[in-house]
Amino acid sequence: MELNTILPQIIADDQLHARWLNTLxxxxxxxxxxxxASEDPTTVTYIILKHAAEEHxxxxxxxxxIEKTGNNLCPTYSAEYLIAPxxxxxxxxxxxxxxxxxxxxxxxxxxxxxxxxxxxxxTYAIEVRADELYPIYQDALDNAGxxxxxxxxxxxxxxxLEEMINQLQKFSPDWQLHAQKAVDMETRLFNQWVNNLVAExx
Length: 202
What we know:
Structural class: mainly alpha
Order of helices and strands: HHHHHHH
Mean pLDDT: 93
Strand content: under 5%
Oligomer: single chain
Number of helices: 7
């Protein structure tokens, strides 16, 4: 993964590091808002509320970590305060679209069922990614002796993945097949995102 090579470069430059943290914060916030948007006003569960709240907290926590890189950096999610801003916004939105298309075609879902199934598969794919991304980032932070840390996020994301698997098992006996399709879609989009990051950093 090219992140292994670009993360030390990002961490070494306070301005770049602030923009990286802000980009991660944007993506966590986007995920939280998507979870909230998928909620059914009547049947929303404890797990979904917990998950949305924790993703919002991750967005806030990452924003707070920016203070450790310097004062008054990245006050908003405007493009100049992000890395690869267009693609960072596109990535999660496109994953949502791709998964919805798959569910409509393969499972003929619509309305409330489609929203819930898309929440399950998109969130599962993102949690698989988070379980890989944040430990790599934490290792790079440790190696650089940075004051920034994401250990609390790592712990919560591990719990999220378990919760998503539990929900998926109840959703479908073929959940692993559907989940793998979502992971494949996410992997393609993630690799494009990393290529965009590399192009901007180098």
